[in-house]
Specification:
- The structure is a single chain.
- By secondary structure, the protein is mostly helical.
- It has six helices and no strands.
- Helix 4 packs parallel to helix 6 and helix 5 packs antiparallel against helix 6.
- The termini are far apart.
């Protein structure tokens, strides 16, 4: 198309003046077709967005159900833990006795350890100690601390554990030393 839009209109104006109703009909048809095409496009876009929204709502519902189920299970487990604590507290020996038993068990576990063992053997043996006694030693350390029995040496070896026979023996010694300070 050559020329400016106004020039094109000026050139075509005589034809429009000869058949104004035909021109008006053509404009109405073009506008109607354009409106229908645009309406269909937006209807399809809206349908797609509605489907996407429905899918997201379904995902939210599923996640909410899973969360609610997990919360119910957590509440159930929390009640079981509390019941176990109450039960364990009723039958548990005093802290002094528990600590002395643990120190004795660690010593018994380490009685055959030799400082001349290879580094690999020491590492494997200390790893076995950790699996068997690591958590209990940490719990006893915390319980002794809460009972007013604290040792910098014990804290240092627990928090800077070096995977050595010496560290394990120090733990047993410190548990026993602190436990003996507790009342019977």
């Amino acid at each position: 198309m050559a020329g400016e839009p106004l020039e094109q209109i000026e050139k075509g104006w005589p034809a429009v003046k000869q058949a104004p109703w035909h021109f008006l009909g053509a404009v109405v048809v073009l506008v109607s077709v354009g409106w229908v095409v645009i309406s269909l496009h937006y209807a399809m876009v809206m349908q797609g967005k509605d489907a996407e929204l429905g899918q997201k709502n379904e995902t939210i519902r599923t996640i909410s159900e899973e969360r609610d189920k997990a919360n119910r299970e957590n509440e159930k487990l929390a009640k079981q833990i509390e019941q176990l604590r109450i039960y364990r507290g009723q039958d548990a020996p005093p802290l002094k006795q528990k600590a002395l038993i643990l120190a004795q068990q660690i010593r018994e576990f380490t009685k055959d350890w030799k400082d001349t063992d290879s580094p690999d053997a020491q590492n494997e043996t200390v790893h076995k100690y950790l699996n068997r006694f690591g958590l209990r030693a940490q719990i006893i350390r915390d319980d002794l601390d809460q009972s007013g029995q604290q040792s910098d040496t014990f804290d240092n070896v627990m928090y800077n554990f070096g995977y050595s026979y010496k560290d394990v023996r120090t733990i047993a010694d410190e548990i026993e030393k602190l436990a003996k300070n507790l009342p019977d």
